[in-house]
Amino acid sequence: MNDPVPTTCMRCAVGCGHLTGRVDSGYGIDGVRGDVAHPTNRGLACSRGIDETQNPDGEWLTRPHVRQEGELRRTTWDVALSRIVDEFSDALDRNRDGLAVLGSGQQTNEAAYALGKLARGGFGTRHYDANTTLCMASAVTAYNDAFGSDAPPPTYDDVEDATTHVVWGANPAVAHPVLFRWIVESATDGESRLIVVDPVETKTAKAGDRHVAPEPGTDLALARAVLARVIERGEVDEAFVEEATTGFGALRAELPDPESAAATAGVSLATVEALVDALRDPTLVYWGMGVNQSAQGTDTAGALIDLCLATGNMGPGSGPFSLTGQANSMGTRVCSSKGSWPGMRSFEDPAERRTIAEAWGVPVERLPDDPGPGPVGICEAIGDGPVEALWAVATNPAAGLPDASAARERLRETFLVVQDAFHTDTTELADVVLPAATWGESDGTAMNMERRISRVRPASDLAPAVRTDLDIITSIGEALVPGLFPATEPEAVFDEFAALTAGTDADCSGVSYDRLREERAVRWPAPSAKSAGGYRYHDDGDWSFRTPSGRARFSTGTHAGVPEPTDESYPLTLTTGRESDGYNTGIRSRDGDAASAVVARVNPDTVERLNGEAESAGEASPADEGEAGEAETGEKAAIAADETACLTSRRGSIPVRVTVDTAVPAGTVWLPIHRGATNELTLPVTDPRSDEPNYKQCAVALEPTTDGVAAEEQARTKPTADD
Ligand code: SF4
């Protein structure tokens, strides 16, 4: 490896340090390996992080483009930026909320900070958010509710000290390989154990000591059943609850009886008892998208925090630990002014708004006083609201938003600017495309899921017509809001951000590029050049939460039913999940088969039941030996393994290739999140507190394709319950 450059893997939020090599000539990366000097991973790395850093599969953007006469055509940066400035100015002149901005957990802290400064302080728009709201917003809201502050209390240091590891609605074996290795190492030590709660028997569940499989969308019912049984069995940590919490009485009054809540979740009371038993030992409760991406995601994340509070599982080796997906999702929370001001200052607090306005040199009345409706609401504000122009930075809403066809129709109606390193589903709709640098080419920092800040350094020069996110953002900002960016270099922008966090919960003011050069990575809060964060809220030995009372707050949410139950027309439940090598909406990991049907995993009992029902109704001619495709033209065949079928929800229909898999429960269909087609089907219902979409559950129908008729065409003609 030539002249290795220490940097941070931007593939996932574990935040491993990498060493990347420079190519002898041209652009690109020559070799990647784990950095033994990095305190996060001490040399460990996963093949996915290495492969996608070195050789991503995506189609690179190398030139700016503008749409002319209906076609995207190559252009110069001057032409592209001038078109953007004209259109954005017009939109802002009519209504400050008429310009929408979507950022990403893939940006560096510096770019995220600059984009938020421009969107909120320069444009003054409510319609600004990031794709991190699609993943982590429910956890953020639940942390703020419980602790008065965002981010998990534990760190990676606590993993080896835990006795019980409960992984709830997450698949770290696939999504966070290095962290999962630490969890498994700890869970196989002596009396330790790994319990996995997931409707699907994932790779993580297969590695666990116990797999608990609730019905999709019933996690809250299960969490409440466990807590109700904790109380019935007298397992509450009364001393901790008395000393350090409020609201336990109100929660207790709302709890269901454990038997009925367990039945709602589709699990036995014995399973609930096993979870109660496990919580007696020091327990880390990890959770992911299976919890957050729900119409009741905030309530469910809150219920998992409640389990930790009630059982005294707070403190080293225990506690609630949300697993962040995108590499810099935490940085977006701390830097980007998306749902809180830099340093996680409260959006609603007038004093905090004045502080920010003064620091940025903008009128305080320009700063919006609420954080806006989230990405789904922003998209709905095209056509149904004031949004006339939308700027998407390192995000792919055309594939990533639920009910993607409807989202695409709206995106077509607006002046759309897409800034990205790769061709995406959204660039196809854009009026202007800006080619941006990606990791390996960018300079800055990122924050991992345990609050550690680490440098991101370029190992490759930029291709001639490619510019960094920070450069593009500050250039557009300088043209529209002169003087907003006195600092435009990454280090100076970081220093500006860090100074704004002084005295806040997320104090990064003791972190500098010089310090990061010495230490590789520093965990916040770090209020001085020598300090670094550890387990939160009890640094001085006493519990001190950031709520007005100084105590942690229990929540009271209870299961309210799934937002789209199955019925006669849509008898199956769709759920979604990650594949090992899939990258978010697949932009960096598509292997050339994007046009092929999405793989749908289905339990063999489901296939048998559907075929049996169709046969009894006289609608199908099951083919011999489970083989499909033998029906005569125009006649329906049976659903069969490795054959194409048609999957339909109330939003749309897609062809899928059926894979029979006993890991998926009967009555459920599993699709990968990495294919844009998946979101043709998903439900645009969001959690009312966090604005996070309910990606994990909706009702669908699976039918055999009719020979000679495209699956989409066949399904669109299918009568729906709403017809
Ligand atoms: S675990 Fe995540 S951060 Fe670490 S090397 Fe793998 S992809 Fe990169």
TrEMBL record:
Residues 622-632 have a biased composition (Acidic residues). It is an enzyme of class 1 (oxidoreductase). InterPro entries: Asp_de-COase-like_dom_sf, MoPterin_dinucl-bd_dom, Mopterin_OxRdtase, Mopterin_OxRdtase_4Fe-4S_dom, Mopterin_OxRdtase_prok_CS, Nitr_red_NasA, Prok_molybdopt-oxidoreductase. Residues 555-590, 604-640, 703-723 are annotated as: Disordered. SUPFAM superfamilies: ADC-like, Formate dehydrogenase/DMSO reductase, domains 1-3. Keywords: 4Fe-4S, Iron, Iron-sulfur, Metal-binding, Oxidoreductase. One of its GO terms (molecular function) is metal ion binding. The keyword Isomerase does not apply. The keyword Metal-binding applies. Residues 713-723 have a biased composition (Basic and acidic residues). Pfam families: Molybdop_Fe4S4 (PF04879), Molybdopterin (PF00384), Molydop_binding (PF01568). One of its GO terms (cellular component) is membrane. This is Assimilatory nitrate reductase catalytic subunit. The lineage of its organism: Archaea, Methanobacteriati, Methanobacteriota, Stenosarchaea group, Halobacteria.
